[in-house]
Each structure stands twice: as structure tokens, then as C-alpha cells.
């Protein structure tokens, strides 16, 4: 499995430049709409001490559906929930930085851009909200948490 390529709902394997082209094509199909580009990561711990991470890129045509892309990564030495949550956020930030550059080059910087993090007020992760949201904001991205963080808690979660 190539970690650099993303899967599309059409069964294609795409790199980030191809995803930006797909985003551009999707927007050009209905340019009068509002669009958000969202990155989110979810993970699942495995029995062997490793964790499976899925990062999703969602292109939301506000009020009218969207498209998404996802990729798997495996990491070892992820021992705690805190380590997993940090790795999720770091993977999302890394991809968001890459996408932001490519989107700007493609003239798509006018789209809303969010990073969704799979933490919320009602779970074990509630104590980490401030620090994880803080690191996302420190990297100049808007952060969204549960229950609104659907790119992480629904889309990426579907492929973990």
C-alpha cells in the first residue's frame, strides 16, 4: 500500500496534486456555491501495539453534498490514547500545510479550510481539547471538534 496516494470514491489512487485538480473540477461544475475543504484524521489501535491512521480530505459543497479522499498510514509505538490523538492532529496539520500551498497555486484559497479533530466534551479526549485545538490554530488553521468534526469522526472513521 502506497502511503503517498489517496483513495477516491471512484476507486482511483491520487496524489495531492491530482486531488487539487479534482477539487478544482468539482468547484468548476458549480462555481456559484460556497465550498469548504476539510482535513481530518481518525485512528484505531491494533492488538500488536501499532495503530492504523486514516486521513480524509473532504470537499464540501455547502448545502449540497461533496466528495472525499482518504489514505491509510500505520504507525508503531503508539502506546496511549494521548499519543494517538497527537499523531492524528500532526498528520492532519502536515497534510493541511501541503494542501494550502497547492490550493493557493490553483487559485482556490478562497475556499473555507478547516481541520477536524476527533475530540469532544463527552469522552476520554475532553482533557486534550485545548492543547490539540491550540496546535491547529498555532499553524493558522481553523479547528473543529466533535460533534461537528465529521471529516475525522465520520468520514475517516468509516475507513479505519
How would you describe this structure to a colleague?
- This is DUF458 domain-containing protein.
- It holds the Pfam family RNaseH_like.
- InterPro entries: Phage_KVP40_Orf299.
- This protein is α/β, with parallel strands linked by helices and 160 residues long.
- It has one domain.
- The protein has 4 helices and 7 strands, in the order ββαβββαβαβα.
- The chain has helices at 16-28, 81-105, 129-138, 150-158, and strands spanning 6-8, 13-14, 35-45, 51-61, 66-75, 112-116, 142-144.
- A 7-stranded mixed β-sheet has the order 2-1-5-4-3-6-7, with helices on both faces.
- The longest helix is centred in the middle third of the chain and has 25 residues, at 81-105.
- The two termini are 14 Å apart.
Give me a quick take on this structure.
It holds the Pfam family RNaseH_like. It is built from four helices and seven strands, in the order ββαβββαβαβα.
Q: Please state roughly what percent of the residues sit in beta strands, choosing from under 5%, 5-15%, 15-25%, 25-35%, 35-45% or over 45%.
A: 25-35%
Global outline: globular
Rg from C-alpha positions?
15 Å
Question: What's the order of the H and E elements?
Answer: EEHEEEHEHEH
Q: List how many beta strands DSSP finds.
A: 7
- Segments where pLDDT lies below 50 for 5+ residues? none
**Structural class, from secondary structure content?**
alpha/beta
Mean pLDDT: 93
Helix fraction by DSSP (H/I, runs of at least 4) = 25-40%
Pfam families: RNaseH_like
Protein name: DUF458 domain-containing protein
Amino acid at each position: 500500500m502506497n502511503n503517498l496516494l489517496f483513495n477516491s470514491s471512484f476507486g482511483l489512487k491520487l496524489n495531492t496534486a491530482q486531488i487539487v485538480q479534482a477539487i478544482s473540477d468539482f468547484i468548476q461544475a458549480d462555481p456559484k456555491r460556497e465550498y469548504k475543504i476539510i482535513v481530518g484524521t481518525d485512528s484505531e489501535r491494533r492488538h500488536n501495539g501499532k495503530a492504523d491512521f486514516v486521513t480524509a480530505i473532504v470537499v464540501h459543497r455547502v448545502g449540497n453534498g461533496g466528495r472525499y479522499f482518504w489514505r491509510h498510514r500505520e504507525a508503531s509505538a503508539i502506546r496511549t490514547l494521548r499519543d494517538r490523538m497527537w499523531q492524528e492532529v500532526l498528520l492532519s496539520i502536515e497534510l493541511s500545510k501541503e494542501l494550502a500551498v497547492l490550493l493557493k497555486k490553483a487559485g482556490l484559497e478562497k475556499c473555507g479550510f478547516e481541520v477536524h479533530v476527533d475530540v469532544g466534551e463527552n469522552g476520554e479526549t475532553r482533557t486534550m481539547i485545548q492543547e490539540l485545538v491550540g496546535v491547529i490554530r498555532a499553524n493558522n488553521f481553523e479547528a473543529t471538534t466533535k460533534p461537528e468534526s465529521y471529516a475525522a469522526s465520520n468520514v475517516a472513521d468509516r475507513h479505519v
